Amino acid sequence: MSAPLHLSAYAAVAEVRFINNLTSPPTVLHISKPSGIVSTSKVVDESEIDDFAAFGPPVPGILGLIQLRFGKYIIVVTKSEKVGLIRGHVVYRIVDFDFVALRDGAAHDKDEASYIALLKRHVKSGPMYFSYTWDLTNSMQRQQDSNSLEPLWKRADPRFFWNRFAQSEFIDYSNAGNPDIDHFILPVVYGYINLTKASIKGMQFTFGLISRRSRFRAGTRYFSRGIDAQGNVSNFNETEQLLILDSVNEDTYSFVQTRGSVPVYWAEINNLRYKPKLRVFDTAFETARLHFNQQKMIYGANYCVNLVNQKGHEQPVKSAYESAIKLLNDPEVVYIYFDFHHECKGMKWHRVQLLIDKLVDLGADKMGWYQSSQDAEKQTPVVKKSQTAVVRTNCMDCLDRTNVVQSMLAGWTLQKQLEDARVLVQGEHWEDNAEFMNIFRNVWADNADFISKAYSGTGALKTDFTRTGKRTKQGALNDLRNSIERYTRNNFFDGPRQDAYDLFLGNHLPYDVADAPFADHRPLLVQSMPYISYGALMMISAAVFLPRKQNDARLSIRLFIGIWLVVLGYSVYFIQKHGLAYVNWPRLVPLDYVSEQEVVHSGSGKIKGWVMSEKSKIESKIRGLEEGKKRTE
Fold this sequence. Notes:
By secondary structure, the protein is of the alpha+beta class. Helices cover 36% and strands 22% of the residues. It folds into 3 domains: 7-184, no CATH class; 190-481, no CATH class; 519-586 and 590-618, no CATH class. It has helices at residues 47-55, 110-125, 140-143, 152-155, 168-175, 285-299, 315-328, 340-343, 353-361, 400-420, 434-456, 463-468, 473-492, 494-504, 524-545, 554-577, 596-601, 605-613, 615-618, and strands at 7-11, 15-20, 27-32, 38-42, 61-67, 72-86, 89-101, 128-130, 189-200, 203-213, 237-245, 252-259, 265-269, 277-282, 301-306, 333-337, 370-374, 381-385, 389-394. The strands form 3 sheets. Strands 5, 6, 7, 8, 9, 10, 11, 12, 15, 16, 17, 18 and 19 form a 13-stranded mixed sheet that branches. Strands 1-2-3-4 form a 4-stranded antiparallel sheet, with helices on both faces. The longest helix has 24 residues, at 554-577. It is globular, with a radius of gyration of 27 Å. It starts with 6 loop residues before the first strand and ends in a 15-residue tail after the last helix.
């Protein structure tokens, strides 16, 4: 059974309290002001429950407790909405939230206010989901190996427990021998969940899709690429497709795929150009081995589908990946290259079937899927099949091409599952059911958009094919708009978005930083150049469009316009030449992929001096380029 919204709260003079009415007797969580010390107690006097009820309506849960520069803040979920059911367990999406400050006046500090704005932006924009009784962080198959008697947070997969850092003080209190707080620890996943009722040939079922984004090496498109020293890759997402039949035994099918950045040290360095300069620092096959050992331990064999181009801008990434795979020489890491743009040119994306045929030839069809049914007497799932391997797909961003391939592989697997469940017989195809076909396509297209927005800031490209099965002119126009928006966001707006990831996930600790992290230390010339270009544009526009007397000297007007054209031209040239200085870089955590060459290339004199001084904020030196050595930050 799913739990109702079970937390009520009120702010006292010395503490903030939350009550859980579902425990017997009810449990109260106390968070002291201003220290944020956590404690719990049991309700002895029932009148205390009335005090909570009188204060206000229940709240769905607590997202976490985070300390900034001058105080701690409780992030409270104030509104949620039901997404659907998984075997009777309700899944919710976070709709609204509130920040409760434990120290009065702390937010008046300029830097503190900036930190709070980053956190609010992250929670507001991030698609976050939770369930009181179902472990959303683990796939159906992994849940079979967990202890159902343990609290939900102890069973959670640490990769996808998105608010793990925000819940750390509660978790520490529980680990210190205080299990009463377990009822208040709410694991949240960041990603996409859709649970839809559907039917084929009269058989009712729930069709579901759950995408979980890893909190390790999380970030934005150009500020998080490749792999880190711990074997984590950027934009790693696990996508689980569910088919739950409305039968007596609730027969359940689960199929898992993953996506993640190419596991070598590489980056595309923003410099205001449409295609940033590509750097491949090191194949670092030992770190790649660490990554795949982790993946094999979780999923079994990995079928690595690489979709990057074999020519042009993307070719060095392809070569580095193949070098790492060759050095690994691991029979359980099977590499499959598919030149998506070449094979599917002319928008013939149905030719992805060639890739599926290649996977079948390599034995990927034998990996199967997870399948279980409910034991009517014991009310426990009985495992019938297990998925023994996973298809790991990537392109450059692990977004657009990856989405197309994953959706088609999911559809191919769904056909086999429906045949196994005897919903379809040989020769019948689920695509012939127009209503369900529409559901399938839109669920996968929405999934593509959510993953893309989290990484690139815009919806995915090529979703017209995912939604309709064909390429359209409107879809091409939407892709053009999204591409322009991606360029703008990735160069001028993604710095704060990356900072918000790092702050919420605990990669940056404000109370450990003495300097003001949000100050602009660029020289006045660098800061003023955009304003000079805006001023020049205004002057030229005024001279051209504003009315003037007929006897005004044309020569003077032309001279005036000419001078401002020169100013405009020089300012644009200056900005373009020193593009690195105008990218909106993250300010909280140093990046690990800006090379010495790129820094020096940004200019000379004062500009070069500024970039070199800022190096500690935007660069960790690349050391140990020999294979097998790690980089140090």
